[in-house]
Specification:
- The protein has about 100 residues and is mainly α.
- It has one domain.
- It has 3 helices and no strands.
- It has helices at about 5-25, 35-40, 50-75.
- The longest helix has 29 residues, at about 50-75.
- It is elongated, with a radius of gyration of 27 Å.
- The N and C termini lie far apart (about 60 Å).
- The mean pLDDT is about 75.
């Protein structure tokens, strides 16, 4: 994984943590962590809070999926091209005669 892959991985982790946080602060019917920021208005960002949180959640979710696909493509393109089964050590066994059939 090159420098670009590491940068995408860092952005991916940040997007993941932000997505977890944004989903956690959304309130469902007045319950949840959303009441911490809004006080008496029952939403984190005032009267338009639900729209803002929905939009931020959608953007973070889309970025999460796009970054996951990009990281998969970057990691696949830098592989040696061999299958993982090609790297498995194949052991050969010797032909053993049964001990009770000694000649």
């Amino acid at each position: 994984m090159g420098v670009i892959g590491i940068i995408f991985l860092i952005i991916f982790v940040i997007a993941s943590l932000l997505l977890i946080f944004v989903v956690a602060i959304q309130s469902e019917g007045g319950t949840g962590l959303g009441g911490i920021f809004g006080g008496g208005s029952d939403s984190a960002f005032g009267s338009q809070g639900a729209n803002v949180l929905n939009r931020v959640t959608a953007i973070l979710g889309a970025s999460f999926l796009i970054l996951a696909i990009l990281l998969a493509v970057i990691n696949k393109s830098h592989s040696t091209g061999d299958s993982i089964l090609d790297s498995v050590k194949i052991e050969t066994t010797e032909q053993v005669t049964d001990w009770w059939k000694s000649e």
